[in-house]
Fold this sequence. Notes:
The protein has 3 domains: 3-87, Uridine Diphospho-n-acetylenolpyruvylglucosamine Reductase, domain 2 (2-Layer Sandwich); 91-213, Uridine Diphospho-n-acetylenolpyruvylglucosamine Reductase, domain 3, CATH 3.30.465.10; 234-298, Uridine Diphospho-n-acetylenolpyruvylglucosamine Reductase, domain 1. It has 8 helices and 20 strands. It has helices spanning 3-11, 45-58, 106-115, 131-137, 179-182, 197-214, 234-240, 269-287; strands at residues 17-23, 35-41, 62-65, 71-73, 78-84, 91-94, 97-101, 118-119, 140-141, 144-145, 150-156, 162-166, 172-173, 176-177, 184-191, 193-194, 247-248, 251-253, 261-263, 296-298. The chain has a 5-stranded antiparallel sheet with strand order 6-7-15-11-12. A 4-stranded mixed sheet has the order 1-2-5-3, with helices on one face. The longest helix has 19 residues, at 269-287.
Amino acid sequence: MAAGVLARELQQGLQGEVRVDEPLAPYTTWRIGGPADLLARPQSREDLEFCLEFSRQKSLPLHIMGNGSNLLIRDGGVRGMVIQTGAWGQVEVAEPVVRCSAGVLMARVLKAATAAGLGGLEFMAGIPATAGGAAVTNAGTPEGCLGDVIQGAAIITPAGGHLYLASRDIDFAYRYSSLRRAGTVIAVDLQLAATDPRAIRERVQANLARRRARQPLEWPNAGSVFKNPPGHYAGRLIEAAGASGWQVGPAQVATKHANFIINRGRARAADVLELINRIQEAVARSFGINLELEVEVWGE
Length: 300
């Protein structure tokens, strides 16, 4: 069935918007990416559930996107349906638990937690992820990971069933959670602790200052491109292999932090992928270590 026909049918059941052949670059922090056949932006839980059911009924390939902050979309785009959750962002505080819809930005969650005097989330300061994306990838820093504070997550299974997984039923590891296999995360509950708001704000500001000093935040990027191998830091390996500053088109290995690839203009996914391959080859040649991607790559 043609994408336009599918879009009109989908739009009839949504409050949110549906777009056809929509470029995805504006929806990613790298500002890179070809078009989605269908892009749906649900505005409520009901919208999201309708989109998921629609994709099942039509047998459409499905991708769930949060803030696009850990994502490289190839220049040929993505077939099927992309659901971008950012239009549905809710935060509810029921001390000491903060419940977040999947599409809410973690910056907003952190702000609500600080106002309520709930600490334990300060390590997420400056990470441009949504709650759903951060939960699925177990996002974090050396100071902590989201899995450390997750109480549970509400899931819609691939078959359309509803499931609530407590943290004890979720496997968390470095930049990994078993939530990806379970289905689509629609809400996350965070277990925090009563803390002086001034102390929270001080830790948040210190973390933000540290990120600004160490990371090339002035350019579009997707954070760390590679996972840290056991016992090593990927950025240090890349720098030691001589790859810092390498450039393909407008894509460049950042000189401030070599595990970042920045978009200095109108970089294409092909430019970034060539740099990724060159970096992996250089590190393998120099140290015998195979760097594993931390970013996800979609499309064709």
